[in-house]
Design brief:
heterodimer; A: about 300 residues; 2 strands; B: about 350 residues; Rossmann fold; 6-stranded parallel beta sheet; 6-stranded mixed beta sheet; 11 helices; Purine-binding protein (chain B); Peripla_BP_I (chain B); ABC-Purine-Binding (chain B); PnrA-like (chain B); signal (chain B)
Amino acid sequence: MDLSSINPVLLIASLMVSATPILLAALGELVVEKSGVLNLGVEGMMITGAICGFAIGVNTGSPVLGFMFAAICGALLSLAFGILTQYLLSNQVATGLGLTLVGLGLSSLIGKPYEGIKSPTLQKMELPILSDIPIVGPMLFSHDPMVYFSVALVAATWAVLKYSRAGLILRAVGESHDAAHALGYKVVRIRLLAILFGGACAGLAGAYISLVRVPQWTEGMTAGAGWIALAIVVFASWKPWRVLIGAYLFGGVTVLQLNLQAAGAKVPIEVLSMSPYLITIAVLVIISARGNHGAPAALGKIFHASR
Amino acid sequence: MKRRTLLASAAVALALTGTAFADGHGKTKVGFVFVGPVGDGGWTYEHNKGRLAVEEAFGDKVETVFQESVPEGADSERVMTQMALSGADLIFTTSFGYMDPTINVAKKFPDVKFEHATGYKQADNVSVYSARFYEGRAVQGHIAGKMTKTNKVGYIASFPIPEVIRGINSAFIHAKKVNPDVEFSIVWAYTWFDPAKEADAAQALIEQGADVILQHTDSTAPQAAAEAAGGVITFGQASDMAEFGPMPRVSSIIDDWAPYYIDRVQAVMDGTWTSTSTWDGIGPGMVKIGEISDAVPADVKEEALAMVAALGDGSYHAFTGPINKQDGSAWLAEGETADDGTLAGMSFYVEGITGEIPN
């Protein structure tokens, strides 16, 4: 085994790329859950975003348009979830699972003509000055724009949730929708906006896989990333910066696993392959053993003004 | 009891229609079971080209049906049964993992002919066919050994089955022959087709200094990863993947199934179909070497072409001794060539490859 052949700079650089989809999706879901809604349809919205973004990217030749359209598609799909759960008061868990199934089916239907096509992809954006710093430059500052965008979105989400009035209202709705309603806030409308944000983020996450990371379209290509995103929200105890840590940790283990194999580590491949999942489970167990989850009090509860 | 009679008569009726078709009284129906999507640009894409060639060759006399992205295992059995029930006369199952399902379904439909690719289990109505991809791997190994500057060749392997291990050994032997310092890094992806994983694997290998990526998975994702990295060469797998040439794709192994498929369909139509075992290489044209691009130096290209010719006319065998097994024990003596039996069940690395075959 020759571990010296693993270059930490490149490892961290590819870890950031590998983690970006789950980071975006988890961040969207965090906002949704902060408003008290549990949307288990992340996987479905991601895969729909992946194919919509890819289709537009291929047809227009512009990955940026692809990303925008992916966000719109993800949001539209989440709107269906929003109407069902917020206005028709359906069960959030069942509706979310249904959304995943719909998304997987819909995407493979739309995707048939796009199999085996190359797509335009985002160019790397070397940040001036910063990317010239030795070691740190190539590690952190020579990525494609979506990587920076995802990190900026973490900061923005954190700031809005913590310091702004809008964030306070969102959190109030998530903690006690009855109290928020009594204060005159439009609970359903606020939740719907949060759901749309979550859908858009999941759409972007999917498009990042089909337009940048692979870049190609295949049926079911998100391969469970949406579920990991859901786990990361819990892992992060509903805090944006911890979502970033969780996503990078997960991305890191996945990339490290392949690197160890390439370096000829004498660890059974099956163990390496399941290590990301094992670590996620272990952390979840530790967090729940501590007791304080930080979950929004009204998470998953149905709100109706008359009750 | 009644139901059983009904089922039995239905089966008889089905069998009768089956033979009627085979006698040429109607269209011959040919089914194809694919492991990936027909648009994968690799393995399944080439099998589908073979299917289209069958349609072209026989026109109205033939009807083809296919099912893509069929998981290996129980699902494939269901798909094959469905095809057989809907009156297929001949069914091609085109992945190693369909071996046992094919045998199982074939037992239930003795009048339907089956053809299983890359397996080793034959039956009265099950033929096996495969191509000697390892001959192509030998050529790749030669070019890889000559062209690598880092002396590190990355190999994205799919599953630890004889076909894949043969490929690794053949490529390694020929790379080592021209470049004693060459090393192989092998990553097992445990999938035939998962672009995200294949791309990540290629990325990991490139980051660790590999400047040649060989793949035994079906998508073009590793090609795209190599193109993005720059300065890395790859080879088209199963299909030409010419859209990635002249760099990173410098050559390719192309599987040409069309002549075989047309032959076998003809045999069913004539009623001369018998269970056979076919394993053809460069000579009969089942394996083709895609155009060697200008990124390869002229002398290397010439040597590679000479090897292709020698493999084709049988004057050279890709596994010619002396070759030792990984543990150092002798396998082939000087000048001895490997027999097909050993090759078909190959489950060991040759001397010089590091790492273990996972089981």
